[in-house]
Design brief:
It is built from 17 helices and 20 strands. Helix 6 links the parallel strand 6 and strand 7.
Length: 507
């Protein structure tokens, strides 16, 4: 059967990515930019470049990995078979692990497809002898898996058979979060302050690693205040010859600015599949354009969440408006160490300020393995903290919701410092109710999903509740109940109304 495979990378970044011989190559781009196709073609290109063995056969073995099995089957494998159809390149084995063994001419290329949500696939990955690995949509893959991949490549063909002509890891992705390993290692963002020394060293880009970033498919139009007022096609976009002229214009219809930022503009951002905890939060209204300065003479209210992922939110209540000045987010850190970090952080960033510290009420309970509570540990570190007035999730969330809905002197009731990236990302998508995997109408869990955004948002809730916002809700609810009860004294079936009780304010 006659078959001609014609491929030419449409874009300078795509060309640079494919020409590179780096041990690790990463390509970040918008949807439709041709990055996954380029990576698939790269596998065949390297198979063709492999030096033949004594029998004249060019042998290579690859693994292609994706975060979940459904994504692997419906997206990754589909793209692969679009370019390497079974009727030309041989039968695809649809029994896990999925394998496409291409034997064509002098090429013997084995491609194994693995999903990270299948434990047996992860175990297989860690035991394979490979030429290379392609990580599809790397923003969904932890750094530990990437490190494991680097240890499995360069091991096929064996050195007694001549060894691999080239070996390494290639990866593509849509724009990830700004605290993801990809932008940190690429040098797009600094290493977060809360990273420990060992974790920081793991984020330093090794020699032989290269990252490529494609232009966005569109560019945002902004007004004089730097607010987005629309979008236009990007003249520097890549893979345009393989897209319809109105591709990007159509896919942005009805999409949020966050979605467009990540998938079309190729800018760092957070997107999740759940339901926002605070749907009324508006980044243009509730996030400051520049860093906030604390108001002199006004106490700084600090909310704390404990555990091995402790967090702190620094706030001020200024003329009825909440200013979120700073966040402190830690990982894999016990209360003793966090108390010391918190004490130093308070002194360094707010010298001479008066602090009022509220923490998770459960932190006043002794652990079974230790007679010391987090509040006692904080006091030992010189931080006087007290339990927040409530730990009711609905009341805590309601306290923040009421502030978001509030207008103070024609401004939003809450204003977040732009440097509070975790709090901001949580508000705009990361802090959410997880979608339930059930048939029928969309359903979500009743409490927010525990993730990297939830801890600092819990801390923020404790701060606002300690600052009196939960008490305001209780008073409002009580007044509404009184009004409702008063209205119940009206007999809707009579022209006469029963006299309501005087304590409800009726005559």
């Amino acid at each position: 059967m006659s078959f001609t495979l014609n491929y030419k990378p449409d874009g300078d970044v795509l060309k640079q990515y494919m020409k590179s011989d780096a041990f690790f190559r990463g390509l970040r781009g918008p949807v439709g930019s041709g990055k996954s196709v380029a990576s698939c073609i790269e596998i065949l290109r390297r198979a063709l470049q492999q030096e033949p063995n004594e029998q004249g056969i060019r042998k290579t073995r690859w693994a292609i990995i994706r975060n979940t099995n459904p994504q692997l089957k419906t997206t990754t494998i589909k793209t692969w078979l679009d370019w390497f159809p079974e009727d030309v390149f041989g039968k695809f084995n649809w029994s896990p692990p999925y394998i496409h063994h291409i034997k064509k001419g002098d090429i013997d290329c084995e491609v194994i497809f693995l999903a990270l949500d299948r434990p047996e696939d992860v175990r297989k990955l860690l035991s394979l002898e490979l030429t290379g690995v392609f990580i599809n949509e790397a923003r969904e893959v932890p750094k530990s898996i990437v490190d494991a991949c680097t240890m499995r490549v360069g091991r096929f063909p064996s050195m007694k058979d001549g060894g691999p002509t080239w070996y390494g890891v290639i990866a593509d992705t849509n724009a990830p979060d700004d605290d993801h390993w990809w932008p940190i290692m690429a040098g797009d963002v600094p290493i977060p302050e809360h990273f420990g020394r060992e974790e920081s060293l793991m984020m330093v880009k090794p020699e032989g690693w290269e990252f490529y970033t494609q232009p966005g498919g569109m560019v945002a139009n902004k007004d004089k205040d730097n607010e987005i007022i629309g979008y236009r096609m990007n003249k520097k976009m890549e893979n345009g010859s393989n897209l319809t002229p109105d591709y990007y214009r159509k896919i942005i219809t009805g999409k949020s600015k966050n979605w467009i930022r990540v998938y079309v503009l190729n800018e760092l951002g957070s997107l999740d599949d759940g339901k926002l905890v605070y749907p009324d939060f508006n980044e243009e209204i509730h996030v400051a354009k520049e860093p906030l300065l604390p108001a002199e003479g006004v106490p700084i209210i600090v909310g704390l969440d404990f555990g091995l992922t402790p967090a702190a939110a620094y706030c001020q209540l200024v003329r009825g408006r909440w200013l979120i000045l700073r966040e402190l987010v830690a990982t894999d850190m016990g209360t003793v160490r966090f108390a010391d970090v918190l004490r130093k952080d308070m002194a360094q960033n707010f010298p001479g300020a008066k602090f009022v510290v509220w923490g998770d009420p459960s932190g006043d309970y002794r652990a079974q393995t230790d007679e010391t509570t987090p509040f006692q540990i904080l006091r030992s570190a010189g931080i006087k903290a007290r339990p927040a007035p409530t730990n009711d999730p609905s009341l805590r969330i309601g306290a923040v919701e009421s502030v978001i809905a509030r207008m103070v002197d024609s401004h939003g009731g809450i204003l977040v410092d732009p440097r509070c990236t975790t709090i901001k990302r949580g508000f705009t998508g990361g802090y959410q109710y997880k979608r339930l995997n059930v048939s029928g109408s969309e359903r979500y869990e009743s409490t927010p999903n525990k993730n990297k955004y939830s801890h600092v948002h819990d801390a923020l809730q404790y701060a606002l509740c300690g600052g009196g916002e939960s008490r305001k809700i209780l008073v409002t609810d009580a007044n509404e109940t009184k009004s409702f009860n008063a209205r119940q004294s009206i007999d809707v079936f009579s022209h006469r109304r029963k006299a309501p009780r005087s304590r409800f304010g009726f005559n």
